[in-house]
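fyi for ur records
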Amino acid sequence: MQKLHRKMIPVLAPALLLGLASAAHAMVPESIQVPAGHQVAWETVGVGEIAYECRDKPDAPGELGWVFMGPDAVLNDRAGAEVGRYYGPPATWEAADGSRVTATQLAVAPAGEGNIPYQLVQANPAMGEGAMTGVTYIQRLDTRGGVAPATACGEANKGERQIVRYQADYIFWKAG
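which gave:
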């Protein structure tokens, strides 16, 4: 039986995120900027969890570490209403209307100590018709928490899973 641990972080109320998101968007690192010719189609706030497991690192056989297993988050609009989900693997953004996309990571940028990095992904063609139809890029901005656990990962706890809380803005772009 796997042990499951949860690390809690403070999560901001969606109403407070309006001002924070605007400030974060103004300072987007160049490496994760969306190419010209695209416009914002949808802005959401993801609030949820990321699972990590103590196991052999995929890129370093024989070396143990906390390995990212996948997210599970609710996507809220700026008013705080649930409008979709983000889960994986594979990383999937699904709107409440059933349309969904997966994507390929293009770039990441540091987001401050204790926060998962900012990210730019290129969306694959949407499955289903709806909000995700035509999405070309997704940015992850204004991240809070979500990093791998600070606790040791070794033979004694190999196979252990830990869940960490996180929050991030997900900005969906379409060709303009």
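The radius of gyration is 17 Å. thats all i got for now
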